Amino acid sequence: MGDSYNYFLIIITVVATVMCFLANIYVLIHFQHPSDRNQAWIPKLVVVFGLSIAQISVLMLPLDVANQAACSQDIVRSACNFTLPMEELWYTVYMIMFIMIICVIPITMFYYEADSELSFLGRVWSSIQWVLVTLLVVGLTIGIAYGVAGYVDYPVEAVTAGMVPIGTNLRGMSSCWDVGTVASSPVLGGYKGGEQRRVGGVEIVSNDELAGGEQRRVCGVEILSSNELAGGEQRRVGGVEILSSNELACDATIGEVDEETWSVRSTFPVYVIACVSVAGWALLMVFAGVGVVTLPMDLILSFVNRPKTIITKSEYISKATAIHTRASELQERSKTLMRQERDGARTRKWKRNLLELNQDLALLEDEEQDLSEVYPQGDEPDAMWAFTVMNYFLKLVLGILATVVSLCWVLHIILYMLVDPPVSPFLNDLFIALDAAFSLFGTGSFALFCFYLICCAYPMKPNGTMMSSFLFNVGLICLCSISVIQFCADAFDVYANETDIQQIYGVQINHLRGLSALYTHNVFVIIFLIIAGLSLIWVLVTCGRPPKKKQRLEDFDY
């Protein structure tokens, strides 16, 4: 049994899991809206658990690579004593995320938005009623689809082999016999006598000495024979027609190679993963397609448009008064909309006014945040200003790094995934070279590129994300993370070769009936690149324009 058990890998797994939960607790505290503090504990637990399970699922990809690499390449995979049962872990994590997406997160969202006058059980029951219809529709859709098309179709080549005359069009020829006494040949049962020789790289067995005869080339193979290769009685031995008498018969492939399809029923968990992955791709190619362009640009432009100096107290009072005045106006508008809603006047105009109110409220919150940055308060205002400046420089560094990662992703997709045959393995070679230098370098870089796609599809606002938006984003991340794993497993299949996730995606899901064409022709990847290209054009056209924020602090004399 191959000794590939790695205790250090278990330690890394436990530490990474704990760090994910701790990091997501900080994310919750940092991004939550002030009105949600010290309340909504159940939604917060769901948010932390959902974010952690999504991040752990992405981290499992480099973990799968490290688990596979723990076994020496000289040892057969079936003989390896792997540290972690990755296949079982993959199915467990995927099923947890599926339940989170279709059941836990929707119930929690309805629970959070339910009437506060209801009891705890009343709010839970009301939430379950809203979700039951969705569960029924999703269950029936996946169940019917699985019953009809839940097969894995493998393209195979049908080859027939046997003993055929040497004058036939042969392929894969290995051994030839003089079939004058073929009924007692070694292949067909106890050939006696005759000398075996190798002529032209082909073994020939004959009753007669292979000498003194005329040398001839038949079907590209040189043979020696003392008799003419002609005539003879036709027989069928072992289901194959041969010519006896003085003919030579060879063990070879018969006829043309036929393309056939071998269909196997897939397991239900695999089909569920495939369906969720398709839904995740529909979101990922849009959000990540836009994000790979806008995320680096937002970080860099944030540094370019940063405040250069602190404002005076009089300027702060003036701007704070203006913000207070607009806040009062927005409050009156919200009261008006609430009265109209109670009166049943939820017309199209009412919905448009509500949308405009939400947009103005978001702009006002941004202005208040900008004002607090340029006029820091507290016991150490100078230290707070120093941290603000450092934060903007950090955004510049992250923006440059994000630009490099985005460019690498686009180049890798073009050079390795879209061109057939691939021009270069590109990032696969990079990860392998980093692993050769130090194993964690390649694994860490691999995780970075996978996590980057999640960051591109993860829009949240610090200190301004309501719990309902938080829950929606968690569902979005769980859904997209499944597609990110598949994307990375296909894009880096050289680096992630022979991993358990490759067996799930590359061997099964990519050949599912009705879905294989989407992956064979890279439909999602092409749309992803098209959206990224359109986003780049939009950014280049609009990057010189000032931000569309009403009465923002543009008149500050920084």
Lateral strand order in the biggest sheet:
3-11-4-6-5
Structural shape? globular
Number of strands: 11
Number of helices: 14
- Mean pLDDT across every amino acid position: 77
Helix content percent band: 55-70%
What class do helices, strands and sheet pairing give? alpha+beta
Distance between the termini: 70 Å
* Model regions low in confidence, pLDDT < 50 over at least 5 residues: 180-246, 549-558
Fraction of residues in β-strands: 5-15%
Element string (H = helix, E = strand)? EHHEHHEEEEEEEEEHHHHHHHHHH
Largest β-sheet summary: 5 strands, mixed
Structure keywords:
558 residues, alpha+beta, 59% helix
Structure description:
This protein is of the alpha+beta class. The chain is 59% helix and 13% strand. The chain has 14 helices and 11 strands. A 5-stranded mixed beta sheet has the order 3-11-4-6-5. It has a two-stranded parallel ribbon with strand order 1-2. Strands 7-8 form a two-stranded antiparallel sheet. A hairpin with a 2-residue loop joins strand 7 (214-218) and strand 8 (221-225). The radius of gyration is 34 Å and the shape is globular. The termini are far apart. The model is unreliable at 180-246 and 549-558 (pLDDT under 50).
